[in-house]
Amino acid sequence: MEAIHMDRDVWNSQKGPNTRGRQIEIEPGKPLIQHRCSRCKRDFVEDASTGERYGVYVSVFSFRRLPDSVTRQWLAELYPGPPLPFDIAVRSKLIDKRVK
């Protein structure tokens, strides 16, 4: 997966009121910071060691990284408001693949 960079103003618009995120460690020695926009419901993970950020689908035990095209779109948009139909469709496809 490629590193996708973004404008700090866009990142700040996505983070919403919980600006600190939640630090977690799924793999030992690899801390991550999970961010969830309480308004648009988008989930992001920030690699604490590299600063790389990407869109994710949150499951019970892991984060499923979204395609680079989705991450690029999410990181380029200012806060979109309530969940967008495109975002709902992406999540639904991931859930459908997981169930089958």
Whole-angstrom Rg:
13 Å
Shape: globular
Number of strands: 5
The number of helical segments is 3
Which consecutive residue ranges, at least 5 long each, have pLDDT under 50?
none
Strand content: 25-35%
* Main sheet makeup: 5 strands, antiparallel
End-to-end CA span: 25 Å
Strand order of the largest sheet: 1-2-3-4-5
Average pLDDT, rounded to a whole number, is: 76
Helix amount: 25-40%
Q: Estimate nothing, just give the exact number of structural domains.
A: 1
SS content category:
alpha+beta
The ordered string of helix (H) and strand (E) elements is HEEEEEHH
Brief synopsis:
With 100 residues, this protein is α+β, with helices and mostly antiparallel strands.
List the helices and strands and how they pair.
Blueprint: H1 8-15, E1 22-27, E2 30-36, E3 43-47, E4 53-58, E5 63-65, H2 68-76, H3 85-99
Antiparallel strand pairs: 1-2, 2-3, 3-4, 4-5
Description:
The protein is an alpha+beta fold. The chain has one domain (8-99). It is 32% helix and 27% strand. The protein has a 5-stranded antiparallel sheet with strand order 1-2-3-4-5. The longest helix has 15 residues, at 85-99. The radius of gyration is 13 Å and the shape is globular. The mean pLDDT is 76.
